[in-house]
Amino acid sequence: MAIRADAASAVARPHDSGPEMGAAARQDPARARQRPLPEPKPLTEHGPARIIALCNQKGGVGKTTSTINLGAALTEYGRRVLLIDLDPQGALSVGLGIPAQNMDRTIYNALMERKTTLADVRVHTDIPRLDLVPSNIDLSAAEVQLVSEVAREQTLLRVLADVRNEYDYILIDCQPSLGLLTVNALTAAQGVIIPLECEFFSLRGVALLVDTIDKVKERLNPSLEISGILATMYDTRTVHCREVFSRVVEAFDDTVFQTVIQRTVRFPETTVAGQPITTWAPTSTGAAAYRDLAKEVLAL
């Protein structure tokens, strides 16, 4: 799906809510977009994986939560999934109950040591068919060390090649910045999912992110496409939230997933539990939303 940078800039500019926007905000624009989703077909064989980066330079918009729960939901449809923690804070690892801070080898070693592969550092999670490449604070050094490397932007793409045929999806949880690690993720990926909090200030970074994606597509990775924008922290009770969502849909149309992730206390609980919401609260609205998102991703 293509997104024009000028559209991204336009949606981020403040403007008065006219009568049409006000009418849309009084309703629930997310519910109005709901359509039946096709049931995913079972697979007869696995791989090579489709690589998707979950990216937004603004922190706290649900990247890690979406990576974990989308990955877990995809496994429920029989897909083999590898999650890559590409954030030195290691939130993805923590969210799956993996004590990455105490591990001797992480994604950092796979990126910086020629003799270490992803297969050497990946770990199995408690979720069947879901594996993780963990991260910890060591990864912060890679941003500096990669600068002097030859073909530095392709480092992650190179190490992913060893395991790509073992999985159906590889999901990369990017750090909240547009640095060299994020460029590595975009260079390796075929698709980008942009989690976007339904709040005005979150819109302002979309133009910069889309511009970065366009540059990576032009110079490093011609096959890179935006898979979709995922509205997160959606609260139907607030006019502001509904207005922001309406503006995003107005600007980006079908590039916005019809699935929205609503605010719920269940997500902080899952972080403490170290489990996806699909296993911690399998009948919750949050779990149902990520299963719907998985259906949309599988239909792309």
UniProtKB/TrEMBL annotation:
User: What's the source species for this entry?
Assistant: Blastococcus mobilis
Concerning its family, UniProt says: Belongs to the ParA family.
AAA domain location, by residue? 50-226
Report biased composition (Basic and acidic residues) as residue ranges.
28-48
Q: What highest taxon heads this organism's lineage? A: Bacteria
Q: What protein is this chain from?
A: Chromosome partitioning protein
Q: Where is this region: Disordered?
A: 1-48
Please list the residue ranges that the record marks as compositionally biased, kind Low complexity. 1-12
Q: What does this protein do?
A: May play a role in septum formation.
